[in-house]
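Hi R.,

Here's the chain you asked about this morning:
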Amino acid sequence: MNKTELRKKYKALRIDLSSEVIEESSLEIANNLLKLDVWEGKFYHLFLSIAEQKEVDTEFILHILQGKDKNVVIPRTDIEHNNLINYLLTETTKIKKNRWNIPEPVDGIEIPSEKIDVVFVPLLAFDKNGHRIGYGKGYYDKFLSSCKPDIIKIGLSFFEAEEAFEDVYASDIPLDYCVTPKQVYRF
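And the predicted structure, written out as tokens:
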């Protein structure tokens, strides 16, 4: 299947997930993340979940990061430049949903991409080669290309890996890991 077909397939699979399954699976994903050796970094980029899209609930991961005293960086979508602007999450950070219902910081302390050590990457699907399919706008590929070369990229998925994608592009940046409720994939 190509990316368009896979986007449609995985959006439909997500629609069928109950809130209980989302919560249980998100907790299992967070617990599986603890098995990774990725906790020595200083700055961790974490997307805030779009509840309407039935994304992995990243609140459990946020609690882990805060418990480990890490700097949590959250993105705001820069629609004009097709990019993400990253802000340090603090006690005073104001969060507002954008036109796609993405919870985002209104403003704050901007953190350059080059300072980020680990990125938790949203996705719809991934394959056994570490390629991911997002919503198709290219925000994360552009953002990841601006990060330092050794940044750790971790996908989060309710579903297991596809064998391989038909239409992988040179601009697609593969993951280092993808974590599901059942297992951790290393690429």
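Residues 3-186 form a domain with the Rossmann fold fold (CATH 3.40.50.10420).

Let me know if you need anything else.
M.
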